[in-house]
């Protein structure tokens, strides 16, 4: 097993915790001394850097939110001067104003090192050809993976998104061994390849997928692995902490969050209280070494659990489990919390329907109604109406069991559900509240 | 022997909204596929279009390429006497033999009215109809 930086990655847990404490303490002093924004924030909650005496004292610090970046657009909370910055990235701003993040040379170095460790943990290295099909440009995905992959000596094929047929031709011609993209785009590539008469499994050298930037599931992983004959690894990150930074290791049992890069907490989204390992809550990160934009207790909004045990691979850093949903994606239907990911999990266990779905929420009179649109799988398509009706009933029944609310299901023609090459948009909420 | 009478029908999944039949028929027209007979079965929100065509494999390929869900179904075509009691005769033969008709549709063939049947036991149905003097259309009549 290859390890990129054994001194850090295999560091005994108590040493790692001491390192995190030292980094946190240094960060808090620096921010309190030099940043008006952070000093005011800390004063507002009555905390002084001297109050940080053990690692757990991080809980005394105030939270940061996405709106802190929006409210300070474009760069008034940066803690590095413009002369020190070497790059900007800008988030798409689908839910409001865009947000800008900045990087010093050290910030880029740490980001790249983090990805280098992660890609090595996925089994990649010199001799691999990595096709980066994340968007290049303002989005962090393309360039982030690009420099990490070059750092470990792999050969990068920077295809970015789009022109899928060309991507597949290049994958074959240049003997690509790994692809970094969204899981939905990889499924799209698989479908387009089949239409071209190419089997990803048999006619390419692809062995690994580094997949993320949108929610997916273990069932989807199984489908991708079985269908395409590759190992699929989950990658995690968000522009506010640098970009995609962390992946699973070969164990495929949680994403290693490098402790010297980020301090991970899981909190109760309602009360803000810290939760114990294994408890489900909102992922919150403190970026320990960032110079231009250090986020303190940043409420990322993803729901997951953390596993603190040393991984079977020997790496001592904590792992976060699959993202179960977003605090703000959560739909409340007739008073019941529904995550689109629950629907995805349920559908993936029903071979009679396809991988894609769309949720439409509406209000009929005073009651919420949820409609889930699915495609009938090719193998399950029967000429008999009664067979199709029972597929629909089966899906309705499974969804009701999983969600605890009644759901209508609509069977639609294949290819009519949206297949986005970026982040999937699977919910249409038509309720006027 | 019975195989000669098994006709390959194509069945196409379709959403129940304007323009879907036109999309299917248009694809077949562009592929120069002739439709002899067809029927639409409808349910809540979707339907199945069933068609007898002169080139089932070609029709299947064309529609699948256009993104439709398509399958083959084995059906039989029974020539009916075009007079009172014609349908009764056929239905009685199958009923007596315990063969269930799953669906049926009719079309006026060149020399007789033809009833297209999907039954639960297609070979038994062919044997029964032939042994009781019925007249079945051969699959080759469509090509």
Per the CATH scheme, the topology name of the largest domain in chain A is: Rossmann fold
Q: Tally the helices of chain B.
A: 4
The structure class of chain A reads: alpha/beta
What is the CATH homology-level superfamily of the largest domain in chain B? Answer: VC0802-like
Overall outline of chain B = globular
Helical proportion of chain B?
25-40%
C-alpha geometry of chain A: globular
H/E order of the elements of chain B?
A: EHEEHEHEEHE
Poorly predicted regions of chain A are none
CATH class of the largest domain in chain B, please?
A: Alpha Beta
User: Order of strands side by side in the largest beta sheet of chain A?
Assistant: 4-3-5-6-7-8
| Biggest chain-to-chain interface with counts | A-B, 18 and 24 residues
Number of strands of chain A: 21
Q: What does the average pLDDT of chain B come to?
A: 91
CATH architecture of the largest domain in chain B: 2-Layer Sandwich
Characterize the main sheet of chain A.
Answer: 6 strands, mixed
C-alpha Rg of chain A (nearest Å): 23 Å
Can you describe this structure in just a few lines?
The complex is a heterodimer of chains A (433) and B (143). With 433 residues, chain A is α/β, with parallel strands linked by helices.
């Amino acid at each position: 097993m290859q390890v990129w930086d054994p001194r850090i990655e295999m560091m005994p847990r108590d040493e790692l915790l001491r390192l995190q404490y030292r980094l946190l303490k240094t960060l808090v002093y620096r921010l309190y001394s030099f940043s008006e924004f952070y000093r005011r924030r800390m004063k507002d909650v009555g905390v002084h850097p001297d109050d940080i005496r053990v690692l757990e004292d991080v809980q005394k610090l105030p939270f940061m939110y996405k709106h802190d970046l929006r409210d300070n657009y474009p760069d008034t909370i940066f803690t590095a001067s413009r002369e020190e910055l070497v790059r900007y990235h800008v988030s798409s701003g689908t839910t409001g104003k865009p947000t800008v993040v900045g990087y010093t040379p050290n910030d880029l170095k740490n980001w790249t090192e983090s990805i280098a460790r992660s890609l090595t943990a996925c089994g990649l290295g010199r001799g691999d050809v990595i096709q980066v099909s994340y968007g290049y440009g303002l989005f962090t995905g393309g360039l982030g993976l690009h420099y990490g992959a070059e750092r470990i000596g792999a050969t990068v094929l920077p295809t970015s998104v789009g022109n899928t047929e060309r991507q597949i031709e290049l994958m074959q011609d240049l003997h690509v061994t790994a692809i970094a993209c969204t899981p939905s785009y990889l499924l799209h590539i698989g479908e387009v390849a089949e239409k071209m008469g190419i089997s990803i499994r048999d006619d390419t050298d692809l062995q690994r997928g580094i997949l993320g930037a949108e929610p997916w599931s273990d069932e989807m992983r199984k489908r991708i692995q079985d269908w395409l004959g590759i190992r699929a690894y989950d990658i995690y990150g968000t522009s506010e902490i640098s970009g995609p930074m962390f992946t699973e290791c070969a164990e495929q049992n949680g994403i290693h969050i490098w402790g010297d890069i980020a301090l991970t907490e899981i909190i109760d989204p309602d009360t803000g209280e810290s939760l114990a390992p294994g408890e489900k809550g909102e992922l919150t990160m403190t970026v320990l070494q960032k110079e231009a934009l250090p986020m303190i207790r940043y409420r990322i909004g993803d729901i997951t659990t953390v596993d603190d045990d040393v991984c079977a691979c020997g790496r001592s850093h904590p792992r976060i489990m699959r993202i179960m949903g977003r605090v703000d994606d959560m739909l409340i239907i007739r008073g019941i919390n529904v995550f689109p990911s629950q629907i995805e999990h349920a559908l993936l266990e029903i071979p009679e329907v396809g991988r894609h779905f769309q949720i439409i929420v509406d209000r009929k009179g005073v009651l919420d109604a949820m409609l889930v649109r699915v495609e009938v799988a090719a193998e399950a398509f029967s000429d008999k109406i009664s067979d199709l009706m029972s597929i629909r009933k089966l899906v309705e029944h499974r969804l009701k069991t999983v969600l605890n609310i009644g759901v209508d299901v609509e069977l639609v023609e294949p290819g009519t559900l949206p297949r986005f090459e970026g982040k999937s948009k699977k919910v249409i909420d038509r309720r006027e509240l | 022997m019975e195989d000669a009478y098994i006709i390959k029908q194509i069945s196409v999944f379709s959403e129940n909204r304007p323009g879907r039949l036109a999309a299917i028929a248009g694809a077949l027209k562009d592929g120069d596929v002739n439709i002899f007979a067809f029927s639409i079965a409808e349910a809540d929100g979707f339907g199945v279009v069933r068609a007898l065509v002169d080139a089932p494999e070609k029709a299947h390929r064309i529609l699948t390429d256009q993104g439709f869900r398509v399958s083959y179904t084995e059906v039989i075509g029974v020539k009916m006497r075009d007079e009172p009691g014609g349908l009764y005769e056929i239905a009685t033969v199958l009923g007596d033999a315990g063969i269930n008709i799953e669906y049926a549709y009719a079309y006026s063939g060149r020399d007789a009215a033809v009833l297209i049947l999907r039954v639960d036991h297609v070979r038994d149905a062919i044997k029964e109809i032939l042994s009781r003097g019925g007249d079945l259309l051969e699959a080759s009549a469509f090509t």
